């Protein structure tokens, strides 16, 4: 992987200054485009769940909620402290993800440099890390993904450094590097369970070392497994109880389709998955899609060849395999897992491999540029500089095709915010009239509505929202109608209405289809029937985009 120095190349000091300038520019651009999107859209379901977990009354309650939910606790503990200091507004919720996204840019730059990448490769990796639509999107989402990818990239970087051929006089065991990898990987495992997919990097690193350094690595790996064991037991228990995931199979059928989908997303070829908000609405013409895909995928193969075949003679093949393994393990492991149990959403979890994709892409582009620079042609130095500038311009144009429409997209209405504002006003008026108000959230409406209500008003008794079906309250981010029989729904509806008998106003917050009609009719109707049977009548209906509010009152009111 050592670069050949050509007669027209700038001196090393100038190259280093140029690389660091490129990193500074990438960080500035990355910060700018992320700030453009950080407060544009309403907190959606998953982000609302983050806020509700972080808003737990104490850490003990938070840990217990996560134990039932099977999510590792680290990210939510960090958010618990963060929201205590800075609040739970959309921008405040997303800012930790933005910090993680900027840190990832730096790690991409350092990773390429660790692999003897030059100024061009390091600058391109940092630039794509700054402007990739996928990384921009997840850097302004209040979820753990950018923290996970940053920690995972740090683990790879430290394992790569500890396996570097030592200098002849160097006999240290690399304990500091092993300890750093142990700490970061433990944090990654307590951020998301899919950090398990990178465990095979450790045996590769151990095979690339020998003597005292290998023994130190074995001790670090043993401590890593021991540190994760307590939560692993809880995770396996929770997974055994999960039901209602059959709908996920519709995203693809089979391992091959899953891998192709992952490759398409990492090649930045729209359309992106619909659950990526406004980014999921980006479309390109066929020619532009193919061009962007070729630009951001073809060099990855060249980078793979460079990493596996290149490098000093003393460098172990196992060390060279670390970056390819970091690229291949997450999508392959998740594709195999999804063929057995459909829990894997393209464009989310396998992006654990995306930092490796970006680094290999940058190294591949630079390899092609170096080959062209080495051609014996007149004016080689000027030609090389021109070609390098053209590569940078082409990359910027390619990434701008999907990024620009995403940055310029206008977010739709904020229905849950509008609903919360209306309900708070209703509650204030009802208190003056000495009436009691109840709000029942149907299905996945619960989490984003509760989040907005908590932001708008101090806690009141009725703000402890009722959920229908009732068990949605135990897991506000998961709801699958197939789990319920009509008899179960009718029984739950009757019990809920009986419990709300004393209320003067019962507001239903329900999802609407794109045409404005109620969605999930099979869930809604048993509750409506129970209200009508108990002597309530519908008095008012409000449509707020994809969210509806329906008021029911007793007949004698």
Counting DSSP E segments of at least 2 residues, the number of strands comes to 5
* Helix proportion: 55-70%
| Tertiary shape | elongated
Along the chain, the helix and strand elements come as: HHHHHHHHHHHHHHHHHHEHEHEHEE
| Straight-line N-to-C gap | 80 Å
Question: Strand sequence of the main sheet, in spatial order?
Answer: 2-1-3-5-4
Question: Mind explaining what this structure looks like?
Answer:
This protein is mainly α. The protein has 2 domains: 20-372 and 383-408, no CATH class; 415-554. The chain is 61% helix and 6% strand. It has helices at 12-37, 45-54, 59-69, 74-86, 90-114, 119-131, 133-139, 145-162, 175-189, 201-207, 211-240, 255-266, 286-309, 317-320, 322-340, 354-373, 380-408, 415-432, 446-456, 486-499, 521-533, and strands at 437-442, 466-468, 505-511, 536-544, 547-554. Helix 19 (446-456) links the parallel strand 1 and strand 2. Helix 5 runs antiparallel to helix 6 (119-131) and helix 8 packs antiparallel against helix 9.
What structural keywords apply?
disordered N terminus, 557 residues, five-stranded mixed beta sheet, 5 strands, single chain, mainly alpha
Could you write a compact summary of the structure shown?
This protein is mainly alpha-helical and 557 residues long.
Helix and strand layout, with pairings?
Blueprint: H1 12-37, H2 45-54, H3 59-69, H4 74-86, H5 90-114, H6 119-131, H7 133-139, H8 145-162, H9 175-189, H10 201-207, H11 211-240, H12 255-266, H13 286-309, H14 317-320, H15 322-340, H16 354-373, H17 380-408, H18 415-432, E1 437-442, H19 446-456, E2 466-468, H20 486-499, E3 505-511, H21 521-533, E4 536-544, E5 547-554
């Amino acid at each position: 992987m050592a670069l050949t120095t050509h007669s027209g190349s700038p001196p090393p000091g100038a190259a280093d200054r140029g690389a660091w300038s490129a990193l500074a520019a990438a960080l500035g651009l990355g910060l700018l485009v992320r700030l453009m999107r950080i407060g544009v859209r309403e907190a959606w379901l998953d982000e609302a769940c983050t806020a509700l977990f972080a808003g737990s009354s104490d850490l003990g309650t938070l840990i217990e909620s996560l134990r039932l939910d099977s999510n590792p606790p680290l990210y939510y503990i960090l958010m618990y402290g963060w929201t205590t200091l800075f609040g739970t507004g959309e921008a405040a919720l997303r800012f930790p993800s933005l910090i993680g996204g900027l840190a990832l840019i730096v790690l991409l730059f350092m990773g390429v440099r660790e692999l003897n990448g030059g100024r061009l490769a390091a600058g391109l990796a940092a630039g794509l890390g700054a402007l990739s639509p996928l990384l921009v999107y997840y850097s302004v989402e209040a979820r753990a993904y950018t923290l996970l990818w940053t920690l995972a990239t740090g683990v790879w970087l430290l394992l790569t450094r500890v396996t570097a051929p030592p200098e002849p006089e160097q006999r240290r065991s690399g304990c500091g590097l092993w300890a750093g990898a142990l700490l970061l990987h433990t944090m990654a495992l307590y951020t998301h369970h899919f950090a398990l997919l990178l465990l095979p990097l450790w045996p590769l690193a151990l095979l690339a070392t020998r003597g005292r350094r290998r023994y130190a690595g074995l001790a670090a790996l043993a401590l890593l497994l021991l540190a994760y064991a307590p939560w692993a037991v809880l995770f396996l228990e929770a997974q055994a109880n999960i039901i209602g995931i059959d709908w996920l199979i519709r995203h693809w059928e089979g391992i091959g389709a899953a891998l192709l989908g992952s490759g398409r997303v990492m090649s930045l070829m729209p359309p992106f998955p619909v659950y990526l908000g406004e980014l999921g609405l980006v479309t390109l013409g066929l020619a532009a899609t193919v061009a962007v895909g070729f630009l951001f995928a073809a060099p990855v193969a060249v980078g793979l060849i460079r990493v596996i075949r290149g490098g000093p003679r003393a460098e172990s093949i196992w060390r060279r395999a670390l970056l390819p393994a970091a690229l291949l393990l997450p999508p392959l492991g998740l594709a195999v897992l999804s063929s057995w149990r459909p829990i894997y959403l393209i464009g989310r979890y396998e992006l654990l491999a995306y930092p490796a994709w970006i680094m290999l892409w940058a190294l591949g582009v630079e390899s092609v540029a170096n080959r062209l620079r080495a051609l014996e042609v007149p004016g080689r130095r000027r030609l090389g500089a021109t070609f390098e500038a053209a590569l940078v311009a082409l990359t910027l144009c390619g990434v701008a095709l999907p990024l620009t429409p995403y940055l310029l997209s206008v977010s739709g209405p904020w229905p849950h915010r509008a609903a919360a504002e209306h309900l708070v006003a209703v509650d204030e008026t009802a208190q003056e009239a000495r009436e009691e108000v109840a709000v029942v959230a149907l299905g996945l409406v619960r989490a984003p509505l509760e989040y907005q209500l908590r932001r708008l008003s101090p806690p009141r008794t009725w703000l402890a929202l009722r959920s229908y079906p009732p068990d949605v309250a135990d897991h506000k981010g998961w709801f699958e109608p197939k789990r319920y029989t009509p008899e179960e729904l009718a029984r739950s509806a009757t019990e809920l209405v009986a419990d709300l008998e004393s209320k003067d106003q019962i507001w239903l917050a329900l999802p609407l289809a794109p045409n404005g009609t109620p969605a999930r009719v099979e869930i809604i109707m048993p509750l409506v029937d129970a209200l009508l049977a108990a002597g309530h009548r519908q008095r008012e209906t409000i449509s707020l985009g994809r969210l509806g509010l329906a008021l029911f009152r007793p007949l004698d009111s």
